[in-house]
Amino acid sequence: MTAVQESTRPTFWSRVLASLVDYLVILGWMLALAVTVALLWLLTGKIYNWLELGPGGAQLLGFVVLVLPVGVYLYLSESSAAQATLGKRRMQLQVIDGRTGQRASKPQILLRTVVKLLPWEIAHFSAWRFVAIASTGSSTFPAWLYTVAVVADLLPVIYLLMVGLQREGRGPHDLAAGTKVVRLRPAPSELLPERR
Fold it and tell me: Residue 182: beta bridge partners?
């Protein structure tokens, strides 16, 4: 029988380190995509131009091959029995319901994941529109597009600041979903050496 674990607010740096581990997982997926594109290029002699789909279609394709798999990883990890991504597991962190302290529900984890990935998708929205305009030979971009790009750049900073400064270390994704991240502490009996 496993001893019950208590939890406490994690340090800001433990959250950052957990995120870095998860970014390594994401970079691994991006590397797999890059290798796939390179192999397709070697086999066919051409690289598919995503802009043939238009900026909206290119963004949708990017969502399907990159953002959606990352979202599935986050959702499945945090709604699993461990209630944590690989990075959170490494740092002994767990996502819980912020009100009850119990396991977060699947809808909470889904909302948390969507809000967490929102800045990334806003950045993709602006990037594909910049690329589409630039591909026409134009170097003039609308002011609203610059605004969207700036918002996309500022949102991750705001998320990070909230995790660091908010009383319970809850970013917008946790506040929206009603969740919070806690550090697991072994119960006192787990800290004692085993008797032989």
Answer: 94
For 125-177, write each residue's pLDDT tens digit: 999 999 999 988 988 999 999 999 999 999 999 999 999 998 888 999 999 99
Tens of pLDDT, residue by residue over 17-64, are 999 999 999 999 999 999 998 998 888 888 878 878 888 898 899 899
Which residue type does 100 have?
T
pTM: predicted TM-score of the whole model, two decimal places: 0.82
**CB-based contact 110:171 (threshold 8 Å):** no
- What distance in Å separates the CA atoms of residue 108 and residue 129, rounded to the nearest whole number? 32
CA distances (Å), origin 1, targets 4, 37, 180, 189, 190: 9, 49, 27, 12, 12
Q: Among candidates 53, 59, 75, 65, which has minimal Cα distance to 152? A: 59
Of 7, 124, 34, nearest in space to 71 by CA: 124
Q: Dig out the tokens for 190 from the structure.
A: 């787990």
Residue type, 12: F
Q: Give buried/exposed letters for 15-29 (b at 16+ CB in 10 A, else e).
A: bebbbeebeebbeee
